Structure formats: C-alpha cells, structure tokens
Predict the 3D structure of the following.
Amino acid sequence: MLLGKGKRDLLDVNGIEVAYGHAKVLHDVSLRLDEGEMVFIVGRNGAGKTTLLKTISGLLKPTAGRIVYQGQDIQGWPAESVAQQGIRFVAQEKKVFGDLTVKGNIELAAHASGEALETAVSRLTELYPKFSAFLNRKAGVLSGGQREILLIGRALVGNPNLLLIDEPTEGLAAIVIEEIFRILNQMKSQRVSACIVEQNLSVVSQLADCIYIMKEGKIIREIREKSQIANTNELEKFL
Ligand SMILES: Nc1ncnc2c1ncn2[C@@H]1O[C@H](COP(=O)(O)OP(=O)(O)OP(=O)(O)O)[C@@H](O)[C@H]1O
Ligand SMILES: [Mg+2]
C-alpha cells in the first residue's frame, strides 16, 4: 500500500428511491465508485440511467437513500452546490451555446470555475487537437461528435473530481465513436474518475472498471470481474 493510503470511496450511492410525481422510477439503487475509477451504467431505454445521473448531480431529489461523496452526505443538496464540490454532469442532449465560439463556450466554464482560459483551452486541444483550428468557430456549426467532445472538454475545466457523462456516443457514426472512445481512454489513463451511461457495449467493455446493469429502475447486476467485463456477448444477455 502506498503511503498507507488505500483505495478511497469517492462516491457511495446507497438505496436511493426517485419518483417523478407519483411515478416511482428508481428503486433501492446503490452504486459505488473509487477514486480514479471509470464506472459504466448500461440498460435499455427507460431503465432509469439518466434519472440516476441527474439525482447524483443534484438535479433530482431522492425520496429515500443516501448519496455520500468524499465522505460527505450530499443528498438533497442543490445542483450548484454539488457542482462546486467538483461533480460535473454532461447531459444526454448535446447542448452547447451555439452562438458562442468554441473558445467562448470554454470561457464561460473557465470563468465559473476560476481557471485560467489558456489552461482550459489547452486541456481541450490536448484532448482533441483538431479543436486548435476550431476555437473561433461558432459551436453551433459543430458536428454531434465535436459537440460532445466540447462538452466533455468544458466539463473538465477546473479539474473536477468526478464526471457524470450521459450517453457520450449516442447517435454518432462509428468513426466518431472511435474518437470519443480515444478521449475517454485518455481520461482513463489520467485516472479521471467518471460514471458514464453508455449503450455501446464494445466501448463499455474496453474501458470499464465496473459495470452496473439497470433494468426497470433497479440495478440488477454489478460486474467487477475483468473477464466478465470483457465478455460483451454475456453483457448483452442482461439487457
Ligand atoms: N420528466 C419526467 N417526468 C416523468 N417521467 C419521466 C421523466 N423523465 C423520465 N421519466 C420516466 O422515468 C423512467 C426512466 O427514464 P430515464 O430517462 O431515466 O431512462 P434512461 O434509462 O435514461 O432512458 P434512455 O436510454 O432512453 O435515455 C422512464 O420510464 C421515463 O419515461
Ligand atoms: Mg437517458
């Protein structure tokens, strides 16, 4: 053990229940993530994956359960306070500020986090060198894949502790999925902690430290064994 420090729980979601009005959609959901881990949530449409990420990020309030982050119970905190603690949510809808330039989009986040614009921009171009030529282009003209990359780059501004990313490859062509994969892989090698909802099992099985399978608002499996993570055929059967 290094310097007497073991692996540390970064996030511990315990038995949360979430409802939209009277419709209960998450039932006794628990999930754990250690520092530096990349954890994936998979499940069919409507399983409750987005609801789970929104709840962790403070956009939805659970009616029961606990969300412990860095040893602190953040359940019920407003989204702004959760973000201030270093949790960043990249939503499923790939919404950028289309009238602003790529750089302008980064500038907003840099301003909010107090990070120098140059640092934030260089992190983005390191992630995706092609953006160097795009910095002054309006974000509205970017392709779906480039928007997602911009959103991930924006979420990384200020060096957050935990990224929550909802379906980064959804609706993208195979060649663009490859780019997103490369970026996530790079983040993994830098030990960026992330909890990612993803339906592309090939991407999931190559990057996951742990996979949670969701079905009808419940976690039906937690898979941490490497050979099981690599076996996409078996994973498919749980969906
Ligand atoms: N704002 C809302 N009001 C009412 N019900 C909702 C709302 N958002 C989602 N739901 C319902 O909650 C359930 C879970 O939805 P959620 O969006 O979390 O699923 P998901 O796993 O992210 O699906 P997808 O793969 O389509 O993104 C679904 O039955 C959905 O219809
Ligand atoms: Mg969703």
Notes: Residues 1-6 have pLDDT under 50 and may be disordered.
